Amino acid sequence: MDVKTLCLAVLSHRPASGYEIKKALEEGPYAYFYRASFGSIYPALARLLGAGLVTVQAETRDRRPDKKIYHLTTEGRRALIDALHGDPAPDYFRSDFVLMMFHADLLDERHRRKLLDDRIAWLKQALDCVTKEIPFDEARKELCAGVGPDFVRGLGRAVYAAELYFLEANRDRILGRTSQTAPAAASTEGR
Amino acid sequence: MDVKTLCLAVLSHRPASGYEIKKALEEGPYAYFYRASFGSIYPALARLLGAGLVTVQAETRDRRPDKKIYHLTTEGRRALIDALHGDPAPDYFRSDFVLMMFHADLLDERHRRKLLDDRIAWLKQALDCVTKEIPFDEARKELCAGVGPDFVRGLGRAVYAAELYFLEANRDRILGRTSQTAPAAASTEGR
DNA sequence: ATTGATATATATCGATTCGATATATAAGGG
DNA sequence: CCCTTATATATCGAATCGATATATATCAAT
Which residues share a beta bridge with B57? Predict the structure, then answer.
């Protein structure tokens, strides 16, 4: 699924600016399963505009740069629905954390510990967010309402909780046995 | 982490051709947490060669195109270790499946069911692979040996199992309540 | 014989995306 | 003044993608 479709998806909730689309993708529920940079959002919006799948209205604000609000057209909505009914591409997952853990034998103890601690902290924070339903503002709330978002929230919770549980249950395994520090250091820190 | 580092990581196990690197990334344990295309692997290898982080030896084979085997240099190994000790970038995760489920209200019942069924089947197959330790050949076996790979395998298993469990426990929720087909059709298929 | 599929190999193309940067505005702090 | 953060639009050069090209093999179907 390309960034054009992603923008259509965000706009299916409500009209938004390019910046707001980025925010939804970065801080809203989409952040857990998609991502896009300004470098791809603006050209994608330009293409959507050219294709008649969105329209744009400029809003002038005092002492601020103009704001462009993009609206989904009927054709745009249809294009989105078509795309959502296509075959899903395989998940795209890249994780430095996992790559580093995979090469644990090349890592020093300190770094291994830091990776685990940071990951555990991040998972706890993410679980907190997902569980809480982020009620920051109306636009954010709207994105989170419905059976689909509920389902995805539950899925995210399940997966993050499983990872957290696994990391906490197995951290000693990765910290102890591949230690390359002196045995004395290992025995005081491995326990 | 860029594709250069990824190639160094694969080569840290044993020398390999560009094609073999791709295979390791596509079918070996790396497939679950990284990915790269030929379009990025070959240019990355060229850059690594230019930087002296790898060397290459051409092997002539009868009636076959030459095979280029890339070897990690000492500097290459050092560069890899440095990269692995850096700060991990945030995970990059994109999922058409999750995006589609998030927009379940826009999907017809048939498509929703297909998405779930296919995903569940894929998860089962992936769990099977991860559990089995893929003992296809020596090169593959080598990639899977050690505390790091064990840890990552366990992590993958935990996460996939959690997702599978969640999907099986909640499929009726996503199939039933957002149905937009006639009530009669829903009641015969929802069960 | 040809075609299609699959496999092992190297390589590259045009399109897309990334991450950083630029610009324009605001506010606050050192 | 500079830096940081925020709200906005936009673009750059580098990296990556997915498809394609080329070169070889084997096997199966027509």
Answer: B69
Provide the ipTM.
0.88
Cite residues whose beta carbon is less than 7 Å from strand D.
Answer: A 17-20, 22-23, 37-39, 42-43, 46, 61, 64-69, 89, 92; B 2-4, 35-40, 43-44, 47, 63-65
Which residues constitute the domain of residue B115?
96-190
One domain, residues A100 and A157: yes
Residue A182, pLDDT > 50, answer: no
* pLDDT > 90 fraction of chain B, expressed in percent and rounded: 68
Chain B residues lying within 8 Å of A107, measured CB to CB: 84-85
Instruction: Evaluate whether residue A40 is within a structural domain.
Output: yes
Nearest by Cα to A180 from B6, B148, B11: B148
Instruction: Round to whole Å and give the CA distance between A99 and A118.
Output: 15
Nearest CA in chain A to B144: A102
Query: Considering the entire predicted model, what is its pTM?
Result: 0.88
Q: Band the pLDDT of B65: cuts 50, 70, 90.
A: confident
Residues B111 and B175 in one domain: yes
Helix residue ranges per DSSP H, B12-137: 18-27, 38-50, 74-84, 96-102, 109-132
pLDDT at A61 over 60: yes
Is residue B67 in some structural domain? yes
Q: Is residue B90 part of a domain?
A: no
Residues A168 and A130 in one domain: yes
Of the candidates A84, A105, A131, which is a domain's last residue? A84
pLDDT at B42 over 90: yes
Q: Contacts of residue B146 in chain A, CB cutoff 8 Å?
A: 104-105, 178
Lowest mean pLDDT segment, chosen from A71-80, B2-11, B27-36 = B27-36
User: A104 CB near a chain B CB, below 8 Å?
Assistant: yes
Query: Domain check: are A51 and A127 in the same one?
Result: no
Pick from A36, A74, A84, A69: nearest CA to A53: A74
Gap between the Cα atoms of B139 and B123, Å rounded: 25
Tally of domains in chain B: 2
Residue B162 is assigned to a structural domain of this protein: yes
C-alpha distance from A191 to closest chain B C-alpha (Å): 17
Q: Look at A88 and B151 and tell me if their CB atoms are within 8 Å.
A: no
